[in-house]
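Researcher: Batch entry, complex prediction.
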Amino acid sequence: MQELLQSLAPWLDDNAIFTASTLAQYWDGFVNTVQLVFISLLLGLFLAVPLAIGRASPIRVISRMIWLFTWVFRGTPLLIQLYIAYYGLAFIPGVQGSIVWPLIKDPLYPALLAFTLNTAAYTTEIFYGAIKAMPRGELEAARAYGMSPMLAYRRIILPSALRRALPAYGNEVIFMLHASAIASVVTIADLTGVAYNIYSRYYAPFSAFIFVALCYMVLSFAIQGIFRLLEKRMLAHLKPR
Amino acid sequence: MIDFQGYGPRLLEGALLTLELAVLSLLLAVVLGLLTASARLSRLAVLRLPAIVYTVIIRGVPDLVLMMLLFYGAQIGINAVTDMIYDRWGWDIFINVDPFVAGVITIGLIFGAYMAETFRGAFLAVDQGQVEAAESFGMSSWLLFRRIRFPLMMRHALPGLGNNWMVLLKTTALVSIIGLSDMVRVAAEATRATHQTFLFMIPVALGYLAITSVSEIVMQWLKKRYNAGFEETP
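Model: Structure tokens for the complex:
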């Protein structure tokens, strides 16, 4: 990255805003955004699979409790969830100075907590919908073979449901990328935060924000492309012949 | 009664502002969505192309970035125009960008693109025979839109419309970042001042959940209305 910036520097001489130093800031913001989104999506995915199975469970108490979790997290703005995670943890009496304080002091961890729970809620509903839409015949076939519910989930239901959930999950990934822009509110220097800093330093809203908008667009299109490839591979058996 | 430490009235005002903002931007988004969807389905490439560019750009960029661009950029843009007018004709105009108006325009503009996709799919799902029948009755294109296309389209558009409304409602929380005193901003200020996060954030979260629940009831009613003639009424 450093060499690239060095080689770009001569062309940027006449430009007041896009200098090597601001481009380096944008790059750091890009890394922060991707890191934040990727980690929370990954954790959210691991949470969502068992939650979706629980949501489809015949035991009413478990199903209702998971429904309540998704209803609350999908029904309130992510910004509120972020504020609760950020201020809520930091203002607990006695927490400042305890062993967990270094974790809470860094805004990254509260933001990860809020983002992970939020995407877990949306992903749970996506997977639950896919599990519900499972063709009845396949379930009956699994049972006729004497498969236990565990085995049926592992061999039949999850591989099929997770594949069919792929297009909806792709939308969720892009939604999460766009939602992560609010991380700048709790002083994380993500792409949007960097753009805001550069806007306020140079008072140049058009350059600062249009450039960052293009960065997000490139990321969005890349994610769309990856999911289109994945769908082509994993949903090949569902294509009309 | 919960003691809001003097922030109670401001929280209520904030809730009212959230509602006003959401409803006004929904209206703008529906109008923009209908126009854009019609443009995308038009036979003229001159109309189709800008509509595609608009929807692709809006859907590829985060709401907050667009909001900042429009909110911080609008004042500079307008000032540049008014300065030019002053230089050329000597008219001294001063337009101050009102944050509320900027919020409505931005959210309306963002969700206009999402609505356009919903409406486009719904227009395509309208039975072509019905349109042909209306044409053979000699209906003008406006009458055809008002009496045939729109009511038939709404049946297909309602689920997407409801979804968009829920997302829009939650997006209004972002205006607190650009300085509008909606309920999230009031709650955040109160939290910073009193260090009692849950006292302020939980009621605001419940406020959003209440609006969502009421909207679901309204959606059920609308669904029944636009499904008339398609489903057996019990």
